[in-house]
Amino acid sequence: MGRTKNKKAKKDEVAKKPVRVASSSIHEKRAKMGESKYALTKEKDQKFVSRVRKVILMVILLAMMSVVLAVLMVVFHNPEAIIKSKIESIAADYYENYYYEKILDNVPSNKVMSEVMERYAEGGFSDVSLRQLMLFDGRRHAEAEAELYRYCDPDETLVHFYPVDPFGAEDYRVEFKYACIF
Question: pTM for this one?
Fold first, then answer.
């Protein structure tokens, strides 16, 4: 009997050998599971490429924004433009709200304003220094003094006013002589 058991055992071992499966059935299983290996890699590559494109676009946008900001900083934080603008606004305030009022107060009652001002239309009034602009009307513009004096010589930077017909408070032209280092 011992021999019969051995023969049965050998037959069972032969039966347990792996059976070869046709390649078509493997491909069917993959197709049923999803897509082929090639399609899966292609999809991964497409996702990677789309991420790379997004990153590149973000870098380009950030670079453009930094260039625009740099240009704006140069334009708006240009010390020369800022100082000249401040001097022009202080000079306008000086003439319109202080100097013109002083002229009106000193016009003789027997003369018309246009007669007095015509005399100065060609040659203008005397030069007004930056220091005088800073000191007029109780130092009204004292907050700008330190910055203006840092760039400009207060005694050599001059403003020259010329009255223009009809000789109102806002009827004038100005010439500036800047003695500034920017």
Answer: 0.60
